[in-house]
Design a protein that fits this description.
Layout lengths: L5 H5 L2 H7 L34 E6 L3 H15 L5 E7 L3 H14 L6 E3 L2 H5 L6 E4 L6 H10 L3 E5 L6 H13 L5 E4 L6 H11 L6 E9 L23 H5 L9 H5 L11 H17 L4 E9 L11 E8 L3 E8 L9 E4 L2 E4 L5 E5 L10 E3 L6 H15 L7 H20 L3 E4 L4 E4 L1
Parallel strand pairs: 1-2, 1-4, 2-3, 4-5, 5-6, 7-10
Antiparallel strand pairs: 7-11, 8-9, 8-15, 9-10, 11-12, 12-13, 13-14, 15-16
Helix pairs in contact: 3-4, 6-7, 7-13, 8-11, 11-13
């Protein structure tokens, strides 16, 4: 008998058990999902030889998506890597044409196709990867569909809206270890966090006990008040039902469409848009396992019109004996000093470098040191790391398993703020419960 194919092995119960994927096509013991979700199996992918461009599609060329497109055109012009953007997709034809024009103008001679259905874009066999910059309630479905179609994924942060969606993506990547998915938390490219991770792993600060970080900014009128385009009209320029997608169709509201980050049903606000940037590299450096208890408080102190909070504070406990404190604000720009406290020494990460300073009682045993780190334009660098990994099949730097742990904090902190109660997470069952 011939040996079974990888597809046959991965879709068999024994292989899924070996991978820890008991949630595939039936059971849900590993998942927080109330119902199991299908896990696709992607076709094999080989490295792309030098001289052949990496071919990409962009799904969601709105504000963030066009920012990526403009930056990608600069990288193409500067020959940062051999890649092309050959397709864009949006349910808003105004955004679609803006995205197409950026890509076409920046790549003379390259045909840039347009799609209003992401499924049609994913069906193209000549596309190697897709960058997803849609509203976050679409992130999970498009990411899973893209992986199943054999496309490597760069997904804007937050990776998803909920823990359930995050675990679905995590299980999908577990079942497809040959695929690559980069989550757009660009501070993962900052060398200071790799330096901190090495010091902590070596025991340089003793047991890491308490860390703190924040993302705070301010504005006169409020946050995420993006311009409203009066030409956006459902049924004419916008497929509103498709935009609503997994959340279910609601009555069209131009405020929600243009400023969805301000609304509870569509976004976690500060936590998902801002704080994931800071928590992700800190959790990478600390390596303390899954969050096990999350509590958060917040309020509407200045921006009374915004449904999501404009000020919040989170505490997180981890399975490997560590507590993290996180502050977020869109009504005051002064945040906490980014640092990691250890029993023997502390790491200061507020600047570009990693600075170790001993605790007073260990000052005679531990020398203060500064690890100088290079300046990095982090977002273009993170995207380029993804493109290079599409070509080489090496592992990318901002992975799904880390993002899933971050999403536990995002989701449970959101539940905590709205429900006035702490929440727990069980790393064994991957299930959340009220504390």
């Amino acid at each position: 008998m011939s040996a079974p194919s990888r597809r046959e092995i991965l879709t068999s119960g024994s292989a899924l058990t070996a991978l820890g994927l008991t949630g595939y096509a039936g059971a849900s013991a590993r998942s927080a999902d109330p119902l199991p979700r299908p896990i696709p199996i992607a076709p094999d992918k080989a490295p792309i030889p030098e001289g052949t461009p990496v071919r990409l599609g962009v799904i969601g060329p709105g504000g963030m998506g066009r920012g990526h497109l403009n930056s990608m055109m600069t990288q193409i012009k500067n020959k940062a890597h051999d890649f092309q953007v050959v397709a864009v997709c949006d349910v808003n034809t105004i955004n679609l044409e803006k995205g197409r024009k950026i890509a076409a103008d920046g790549q003379p001679g390259v045909e840039v196709a347009t799609y209003t259905s992401y499924e049609e874009l994913l069906a193209r066999p000549d596309i190697d990867g897709v960058l997803i910059a849609t509203p976050e309630h679409w992130h999970a479905q498009i990411s899973v569909d893209a992986i199943g179609a054999g496309k490597d994924v760069y997904c804007e942060k937050p990776m998803t809206l909920t823990i359930e969606d995050a675990l679905w993506i995590m299980r999908t990547l577990d079942a497809n270890p040959h695929m690559r998915m980069q989550v757009g938390t660009q501070y993962m490219m900052l060398e200071k966090y790799r330096a901190a991770k090495k010091l902590i792993a070596e025991g340089a600060i003793g047991h890491p006990t308490l860390s703190q970080t924040s993302y705070c900014r301010n504005s006169i009128n409020g946050e995420w008040l993006y311009p409203i385009d009066p030409n956006v009209k459902p049924g004419e320029t916008l497929d509103w039902e498709k935009w609503c997608g997994p959340k279910g169709v609601v009555e069209f509201d131009t405020e929600i469409y243009h400023r969805w980050r301000r609304y509870r049903n569509w976004s976690t606000g500060i936590i998902g848009d801002l704080l994931v940037h800071m928590m992700t590299p800190m959790m990478y450096a600390l390596d303390r396992g899954w969050p096990t208890r999350v509590s958060a408080s917040g309020g509407h102190y200045c921006d009374k019109k915004m449904e999501n909070h404009d000020q919040l504070f989170i505490t997180v406990e981890f399975e490997r004996e560590h507590t993290m404190a996180v502050a977020g604000s869109t009504c005051n720009e002064n945040g906490l000093e980014t640092m990691i406290r250890g029993h023997q020494a502390n790491l200061f990460l507020g600047g570009n470098n990693c600075v170790l300073r001993p605790e007073r009682v260990f000052a005679e045993d531990i020398d203060e040191q500064t690890i100088n780190c290079p300046q990095v334009d982090s977002q273009p660098a993170l995207r380029l790391n993804w493109i290079e990994c599409i070509r080489s099949r090496e592992m990318n730097i901002s992975p799904v398993h880390l993002a899933a742990k971050v999403m536990v904090i995002v989701d449970l902190a959101t539940r905590s703020m709205w429900g006035n109660s702490a929440w727990k997470f069980d790393p064994t069952t991957l299930k959340a419960s009220q504390a």
